[in-house]
């Protein structure tokens, strides 16, 4: 019953008109008075911000904030894999037979997530990691490795919440939400970076169109908090033993190594 009620109310609100209204409000000067209460409610660290609060004209501008260069340290290394986002590393595990992953006790199809069985089957037996960004997190996405872009595509239209309730009661948001996917060629095979849109606003902006990602560089950003899923082919990745999942991670922090 709880699942059905949750989905019913989300369907009522997750429409083009409601998304448009929210976008118009957050992008207007009317939203500026909400910035200070937002900072207080989510305990945003102002000292890390590249610009003072007064410089942000709208709530949308504040969501898109950049950080001071020294705010994050990239743990560079040829075989290092670093966190692409400030986020909660919510899940990490093995991609099961049939190209399935289990997140919050719910089974997701990697085939559906990537939109292709041909692409998904290469990841069967590999590793997945799910990073959840709350509204308080820094919203820009950085490259976890050095890699040549092997492919990039988008899927989905509507987006449902990807918070705890969304993952538990929603309609498979990691596999059905609007998704911007980049597949990278690395020394040990391929990996996929799946950027998942959040409720109301699907916008995921790419920062550049170069054919190569350099570790630590900004590659995209969210308009609102959302989720990033990393997929690695079998034998390509080993999780950092010092991490206890779930845990908070920062951009540039070493989360594992390539084999």
Report on the architecture of this protein.
Its cofactor is pyruvate. This is phosphatidylserine decarboxylase. One of its GO terms (molecular function) is phosphatidylserine decarboxylase activity. It comes from Bacillus aerolatus. Pathway: Lipid metabolism; Phospholipid metabolism; phosphatidylethanolamine biosynthesis. The chain is an alpha+beta fold. The chain has 2 domains: 2-63, no CATH class; 73-258, Glucose Permease (Domain IIA) (Distorted Sandwich), CATH 2.70.70. Helices cover 21% and strands 31% of the residues. The protein has 8 helices and 16 strands. The strands form 4 sheets. The protein has an 8-stranded antiparallel beta sheet with strand order 11-7-8-9-13-5-2-15. Strands 1-16-14 form a 3-stranded antiparallel beta sheet, with no helix packed on it. A 3-stranded antiparallel beta sheet has the order 6-12-10, with no helix packed on it. Strand 3 and strand 4 (106-109) form a beta hairpin. It is globular and about 50 Å long. The N and C termini lie far apart (46 Å).
Mean pLDDT: 84
The tally of structural domains comes to 2
| Radius of gyration from the alpha-carbon trace, in angstroms | 18 Å
Lateral strand order in the biggest sheet: 11-7-8-9-13-5-2-15
CATH architecture of the largest domain, by name, is Distorted Sandwich
The tally of helices reads: 8
What's the total number of strands?
16
* Helix-strand sequence: HHHHEEEEHHEEEHHEEEEEEEEE
Structural class: alpha+beta
Reading off the top of the CATH hierarchy, the class of the largest domain is best stated as Mainly Beta
Strand content of the residues, in percent? 25-35%
Low confidence ranges: 1-14, 165-170
- Structural shape: globular
Under CATH, the topology of the largest domain can be stated as: Glucose Permease (Domain IIA)
End-to-end separation in angstroms reads 46 Å
Helix content: 10-25%
Biggest beta sheet summary = 8 strands, antiparallel
